[in-house]
Amino acid sequence: MNTAKLLLHCPDRAGIVTDITNFISVNNGNIIYLDQHVDHVENIFFMRIEWDLENFLIPNEKIQDYFDTLYARRYDITFRLYFSDYCPRMAIFVSKLSHCLYDILARYTAGEWKVEIPLIISNHGDLREVAERFGVPFHVFPITKENKEEQEDRELQLLQDNRVDFIVLARYMQVLSDRMIYKYPNKIINIHHSFLPAFVGAKPYHAAFERGVKIIGATSHYVSSALDAGPIIEQDIVRVTHKDTIPALITKGKDLEKIVLSRAVHKHIERKILAYKNKTVIFE
Amino acid sequence: MNTAKLLLHCPDRAGIVTDITNFISVNNGNIIYLDQHVDHVENIFFMRIEWDLENFLIPNEKIQDYFDTLYARRYDITFRLYFSDYCPRMAIFVSKLSHCLYDILARYTAGEWKVEIPLIISNHGDLREVAERFGVPFHVFPITKENKEEQEDRELQLLQDNRVDFIVLARYMQVLSDRMIYKYPNKIINIHHSFLPAFVGAKPYHAAFERGVKIIGATSHYVSSALDAGPIIEQDIVRVTHKDTIPALITKGKDLEKIVLSRAVHKHIERKILAYKNKTVIFE
Amino acid sequence: MNTAKLLLHCPDRAGIVTDITNFISVNNGNIIYLDQHVDHVENIFFMRIEWDLENFLIPNEKIQDYFDTLYARRYDITFRLYFSDYCPRMAIFVSKLSHCLYDILARYTAGEWKVEIPLIISNHGDLREVAERFGVPFHVFPITKENKEEQEDRELQLLQDNRVDFIVLARYMQVLSDRMIYKYPNKIINIHHSFLPAFVGAKPYHAAFERGVKIIGATSHYVSSALDAGPIIEQDIVRVTHKDTIPALITKGKDLEKIVLSRAVHKHIERKILAYKNKTVIFE
Amino acid sequence: MNTAKLLLHCPDRAGIVTDITNFISVNNGNIIYLDQHVDHVENIFFMRIEWDLENFLIPNEKIQDYFDTLYARRYDITFRLYFSDYCPRMAIFVSKLSHCLYDILARYTAGEWKVEIPLIISNHGDLREVAERFGVPFHVFPITKENKEEQEDRELQLLQDNRVDFIVLARYMQVLSDRMIYKYPNKIINIHHSFLPAFVGAKPYHAAFERGVKIIGATSHYVSSALDAGPIIEQDIVRVTHKDTIPALITKGKDLEKIVLSRAVHKHIERKILAYKNKTVIFE
């Protein structure tokens, strides 16, 4: 089934749901999913609506324009339109740890996700062998203070050449420059190895051990220019005890990290995330 | 804010969402909540919609009739209509264990739930003191094989006299007769002390200990005529280890039971549950 | 069965376990529980050992002295000795929220815990009625900047008169002075409504909403002079979504708070917690 | 550090802990881990003890004999002795699903586990490519009713030739014959895709969907001759809703399955599991 997915938000007003469902129905689109949410604090209306394109009267390439003209301007709507037959293109950034990379490549190879992975980028050569096992091109860009700008230029060029839609930082241990972040707004997914906002920054498992917490966590979020402070997509936790040493926390945490990151990537691919200000609306 | 809540299901067909949202909008109702679900296996459409009644043009007492005439017949819709200003009346059935009863009465007294509790019924006198602490009338109906029918008649009369809308079995250790269940279809909420369908019937903690499980659970469900087999509303679990004896399982389980039961009761009061066949759709 | 429980820690050295188990065995004590832990970072040995006193050759009142003389000095052991037939005395401090208080009093009244609760102290009169329902004396000490020292003096006197062993802050919304904390070192249990160290201080649910987290938590800990920074005893979390408003977070959080606090209190009563520096060892 | 790990159980009696810790101490072994458990229902004492071999006076090859002679006979102890410098050898059995296999091979390749994997056995050829990616020999034994005995003979020979210590069934969809199970008692680890004992047998996700549960689970257990009824090692769950179709349950379940299986394998490798009757004692 070919479908269109429309994610939108706008100031809340009576009649929006009716108008938009009407637009789809009168043009012979069968709505197969609708979920909406109103943030009564900000007074913002959010909606995700998906419909079968089979008998839809408006050709795919004109939907964007029609919706923009007929509704978006009237209701001050910000929206994104996606088609289910497009396969998004994703780049992976890694450093030295392999667990998240393996988890993503196993899903990719097994066909779990509708996504293309044209390339992996790393600041170290360590994981080249993993990439080769799965036949995905691997590019190394060692980064130093001096060459960071130049290397990122080359990375950006490579991403553009590969028509990359979004980026997954699979334990990439290098802060991206703002320039890079602005190029991919809410399109760079990071995994941080703590339940944010606890333990921002480096060595969260060491900090968790030091504090004596009884649960540790992992958080996937979109990257914003503030460190570990972008919109949170998914979090999960695992219980720990006084018996867990720092290496034990790291081992337990790895399982969390890979699952939490993969859940976030999956939702992103499925177009179930709408980021607004510094939060996400996650449709089910 | 006074609102109407409409829960419905019907065979899935294009145009339903549009028609129903239209019905509300053209009559000046502002939709403040809409969630829908399609069961593609059974091809059933489910919806919960809530709207502000302030400027709604149809008087409350006529909405049921109008909706029935205009839409329910056309789409073969089964629906229930609720008004937020009505306070549902709930009876509690208990036996000897107090933890669920205390949890419910504490919430009730603290004003957490919009509900009236006109009475507590028990087959034992043990918890009279608890009921008295909270000033709720307590009625004892000892049940034997011989007097079961007669006692249930008296209970049913009492429930009717008190205009009871739904019943909560807060660890009531007596099987209800079918007659009683049919009087309150999907209106009797039970808590079973296992993660159903594991450990149906008596002494689930003993069975869990015997089997050596590493998690135990609790399940709240609507009572149907098949034992512990009605539509599940809510479940939760807690980890256990080989160190947990049967009394330890019971202690851990009590906390689960009361929380899981109270979550289910709260959802029922908020009209967020739609039971269909032997399952529930839980709107958020 | 009357038992002795010994909790101890000391610099780690070979032979300690053997010596201590020997001490109990040669004196005809039957060990019914033994758990030990070594913190290899600090090189500290921790142990909890419990034995049946029935045939134990050393009289109860001399065990402390014998153990001190024979082992504590030799191994530089810090230890506490408890007898199962002593019923610890606990004071509850509350302000205006009743959910934790109800949960504790229901357990107390139902006989779940081996504890005496001679009194409840509050800085407000709101919960007097709850205390009266359960027949526990309720004392109000309104606190202002000006009278804080004087009021705490009166509270300390009252605690002493009632031979209170430990204090539970059941959502007591008033910071204790250091003087009070030093009087009850690792004997004041607080519940904080976040997964610490995230959201220290006031209004953590508001902060969680603002940050857009996908899980919220609760943390019980011993009170130290640094705000919300004492040794953590127990934590738990619950999932939330973008649909959860601040009142919804507060409602979900209340269930967490009361369960997490009661778990901590129960472990404290059972003598399963050994606080060391700013962490806890929790024996099972 | 080279260590010995001793796991034992015997009828509970006073003095055992003291005697065994004495045995290690007087022979200059430094105890680095000790955990014990008494099952008061069965009156069985369980212990796991680990000690540094550096200065231990008894040579490794004689410890088994000495312990047997000096203690096992006296206390009727059943025990197993392991040395940390031995690397256990594990075979993987798979069918067509790759997620558990990838998870195991990624951990293996990354060096997370101290284990050798000399071979993978399958009843289908589908996952040969995965095995080849990781350079592990892959053997296909298609099984029919007619050839089952003969094929299992060949498998047993292959396992023996490769000196395999234990077997992991990573979603192997073929019931093993009792003969095979008896050869590897409590040495075959299976993953079942439900929270046992709910949904024993085939198609548990379909059954879970049908029943309308709100949580699904996965269970790793040792294989016994009764289907899905062996000693449980580890379980975990994930929440589901009415929106989750059967394919959605399968997708959510896969993540559970691989994590729960890998946790069980890890504990087995670390010698932290003691199976007794139909249960496990899991040391931490």
Describe this structure as you would to a colleague.
4 copies of one chain form a homotetramer. Chain A contains 8 helices and 13 strands. Chain A has 284 residues and is of the alpha/beta class. Chain A folds into 2 domains: 3-83, 2-Layer Sandwich (Alpha-Beta Plaits), CATH 3.30.70; 89-282, 3-Layer(aba) Sandwich (Rossmann fold), CATH 3.40.50. In chain A, the strands form 3 sheets. A 7-stranded mixed sheet of chain A has the order 7-6-5-8-9-10-11. In chain A, strands 2-3-1-4 form a 4-stranded antiparallel sheet, with helices on one face. In chain A, β6 (116-122), α4 (128-133) and β7 form a beta-alpha-beta unit. In chain A, α3 (99-110) packs parallel to α8. The first copy, chain A, is globular and about 60 Å long. The model of chain A has no long low-confidence stretch (mean pLDDT 96). Chains in contact: A-B, A-C, A-D, B-C, B-D, C-D. Chain A binds chain B through residues 14-15, 17-18, 21-22, 24-25, 30-36, 38, 239, and chain B through 14-15, 17-18, 21-22, 24-25, 30-36, 38, 239.
What's this entry about, in short?
Four copies of one chain form a homotetramer. Chain A has helices at residues 16-26, 60-75, 99-110, 128-133, 148-161, 178-183, 204-211, 246-269; strands at 3-11, 30-39, 44-52, 78-83, 89-94, 116-122, 138-140, 166-169, 188-192, 215-222, 232-239, 273-276, 279-282. Chain A has 284 residues and is an alpha/beta fold.
